[in-house]
Structure formats: C-alpha cells, structure tokens
Amino acid sequence: MNKPLAAVALSLLLTGVAAAPAMASSSDTAxxxxxxYAGTVALSNCSGSVVRTPNSQPGDPALVLSNxxxxxxxxxxxxxxxxxxxxxxxxxxxxxSGSKVATLRASKIAYGTMTDTDVSLYQLTKTYAQxxxxxxxxxxxxxxxxxxxxxxIKVVSGYWKRTYSCNVDGFAYRLKEGAWxxxxxxxYTSSCNTIxxxxxxxVIDTTTGKVVAVNNTxxxxxxxxxxxxxxxxxxxxxxxxxxxxxxAQQTYTxxxxxxxxxxxxxxxxxxxxxxx
Length: 276
Hints:
Number of domains: 2
Radius of gyration: 17 Å
Order of helices and strands: HEEEEEEEHEEEEEEEEE
Structural class: mainly beta
Number of helices: 2
C-alpha cells in the first residue's frame, strides 16, 4: 500500500518536491467549492479526516475516516473485519491552512477492514459540536451517492499537508494487491501522483465539497497484483497493470451502515460492508 515513510521523506528532501504542493493541470476546471485542509487529520503513519454522514447530529461522537491498512493493529487479513475495538489513538486536527489546532483522541475503532474495501472509521471522544465550538472546525460530509467518472477531485493529505488535483478516470471492477481484493475502486487520472503517507486522505469532489472516496494505493513498479503494485481485473478476469496510476476506495457504501448516534450497524437496510 505504501512505501516506508522514512524513505518517502528522504526522497522528498533530495528532490525538493515537498517545497510546493502538486498543482492542477491546465486542463482542470476551476473548482466550484474551495477545498482546504480544514477537517483533515494527520495520523502517525497516514492521513485522514473528520467525517459525518448526511444524517449525523451535532451531539453525535465524531468519526475519523482513514484506511484499514493504517490501523495501529496492523494490516487486517483478507476476510478480517474489526468492529467496536477499543482504541486511544490520537489525531492531529488541521485548520484550513494546514496548521495543527488540536489533538483528537479515539475511544474505539468503530469499523476497519481491507476486504472489499480499505477503510477504517474511528469514533472520537468529542462530538461534532464540541470540535466546532472549541476549534472552529466542521466535519466533512460523506456523499451518499456513487462518484461520477470525469468529475474533478482533490486528494487532501493531512500527513504531508499536500493536495493533489485530478479527475476520476474510471472504476476498477476488482483491484487486487497481494492478499487483498477491493471492489469498484476509483482510478485517478495521472496528476494525482500520491505517495506514502497520503493513505487515508479524503477524496473530495470539488463541485459538492463532499467526500466520495478514501485514497489508498497505487502501482509503483509496474508489477502485477503484488504488494504496492495493484492490478485491475475486469468481469471476464482480464488483468490490466497501470504503472504510476493511483486508486481510492469509494465511501458512499459507509453511509447506510452508520445509524443513529453514529453507531456502526451492519444489519441496517442497504448496508453491504463486510461483516465479521
């Protein structure tokens, strides 16, 4: 999923890439919504964001979205699903300019898996209303609809404080990487050349400002279906390798599984997330 972060940091120092964020290509259209770092978080090894569903209430305990492979417990095995596991993990909350404004703490891993998708949801000890009143930061909203091919997106990394701009190039029926297989993955156009540490970053539709996916992987070396080299598999079993292309996992599938009080309920109508 990621290069070791120490190696990535050394590469950035040597190349000077970290001095400036990735810029949108001249063909990108101007975003309708200003996308900033507000609501994103930095984890110890990954990126993430404070998120809400369209039905979340101000008094609900807030949720942080990241990847399953970013869990402090290590990579979940294929078929493994974590629900309501105790956690005291901390997250650095960022404001619009990317400055840290607070340290947030988890009370539990509400949900985590690398089966069918690559996602983790942490429940925090603070509510949305508390975060808003104390730090002036609102949660990002999860879109409840499938993302659209060709739409303009930004991948916002709280770990690197870096934003990538591109479009949804299409969708991989199956994306295989090592032991894991993910369904209906978002494929970026090439300008979202994400790196280690951007895992877990929210993928934001620039028209709506809503989160449509969570950044998780890319093919680094041109190998086929190996760790750090995912391959696409179509309905007929044909395999395609796209070296240098990166991917995300859709997040609209989370919305039906989050019930009142932001509690994970995998038995809710429309919830198709893997179960333990």
